[in-house]
């Protein structure tokens, strides 16, 4: 049974050596086997700070980060962790295949085993045909794939990827996440920060939303969707023309389509209907809309 885990307990994270430089306050998160956890939030919220703290680049200013990952006997510490930072870490003076093979070699694997793992990783990331090219002779997206392939070639039990889909095309992103899903089902810990909410919604099991120097949500993706779904959207079609300003201003927020339909939050639907009735507004059609992950994310990001 896989007993690996990463746990943050009352951790204050940031830069420097004192709590004057806190980026994230009082963080309590468990990263467990068999789970893809997506870390989301606006630019500058602290996603990379969280990831760099998990891997030990930034020690916690206070609190604890517990990290249990079983290493292979007689091999270096951290050899079972694949870490891909947001900023490229690449040897620009050698080829694609030599960059990729560094991953398994530095994690203590034999040259024979490293070659086999590197070939598999390059094929997984669709860069095998580029294996002999110098790094500065391939595109930015291809360079990103090299960096990811280097970590996949370690055959790790823990994947920590900071914005891995940056520069990747849709097909490459989809293929990467499908691979990570199979690894998580097999028992790996997968931690990803991303702004790609479409692919996060499809593949992540858990979501951590950060903003305003704190964790705003930490739980299952289904719980996140359900929490946001409590505030469903209602689209209301007038019988003719447009709704009056009095009716529109009866709700705190609304969107108006080109054909005059109003889209409001379900929580304000009853209030809207009462005002519409008092002002003799005739309604032709009402429909409910399920909020997307993007809508829920935007709503919760704006919360203090």
Automatic annotation (TrEMBL):
Keyword Transferase: no
Domain called ABC transporter: residue spans: 8-237
Pfam families: ABC_tran
Gene3D superfamilies cross-referenced by the UniProt entry: P-loop containing nucleotide triphosphate hydrolases
GO MF annotation, one: ATP hydrolysis activity
Keywords noted in UniProt: ATP-binding, Nucleotide-binding, Transport
SUPFAM superfamilies: P-loop containing nucleoside triphosphate hydrolases
Family: Belongs to the ABC transporter superfamily.
Protein name listed in UniProt: Manganese ABC transporter, ATP-binding protein SitB
Source organism: Fructilactobacillus florum 8D
């Amino acid at each position: 049974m896989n007993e690996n885990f990463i746990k943050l307990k009352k951790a204050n994270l940031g830069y420097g050596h004192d709590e004057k430089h806190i980026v994230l306050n009082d963080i309590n998160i468990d990263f467990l086997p068999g789970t893809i956890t997506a870390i989301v939030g606006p630019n500058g919220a602290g996603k990379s700070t969280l990831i760099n703290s998990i891997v030990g680049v930034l020690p916690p200013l206070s609190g604890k980060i517990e990290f249990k990952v079983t290493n292979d006997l007689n091999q270096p510490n951290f050899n079972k962790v694949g870490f891909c930072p947001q900023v490229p870490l690449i040897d620009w003076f050698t080829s694609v295949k030599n960059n990729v093979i560094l991953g398994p070699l530095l994690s203590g694997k034999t040259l024979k085993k490293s070659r086999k793992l590197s070939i598999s990783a390059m094929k997984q990331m669709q860069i095998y045909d580029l294996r002999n090219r110098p790094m500065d002779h391939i595109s930015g997206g291809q360079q990103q794939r090299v960096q990811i392939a280097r970590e996949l070639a370690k055959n790790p039990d823990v994947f920590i990827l900071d914005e891995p889909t940056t520069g990747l095309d849709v097909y490459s992103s989809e293929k990467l996440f499908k691979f990570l899903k199979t690894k998580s089902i097999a028992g790996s810990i997968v931690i990803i920060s991303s702004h790609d909410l479409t692919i996060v919604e499809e593949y992540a099991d858990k979501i951590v939303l950060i903003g305003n120097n704190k964790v705003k949500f930490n739980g299952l993706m289904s719980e996140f969707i359900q929490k946001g779904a409590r505030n469903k959207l209602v689209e209301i079609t007038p019988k003719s023309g447009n709704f009056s300003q009095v009716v529109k201003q009866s709700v705190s927020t609304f969107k108006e389509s080109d054909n005059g339909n109003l889209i409001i939050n379900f929580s304000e639907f009853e209030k809207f209907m009462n005002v519409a009735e008092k002002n003799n507004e005739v309604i032709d059609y009402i429909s409910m809309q399920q909020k997307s992950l993007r809508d829920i994310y935007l709503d919760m990001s704006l919360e203090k």
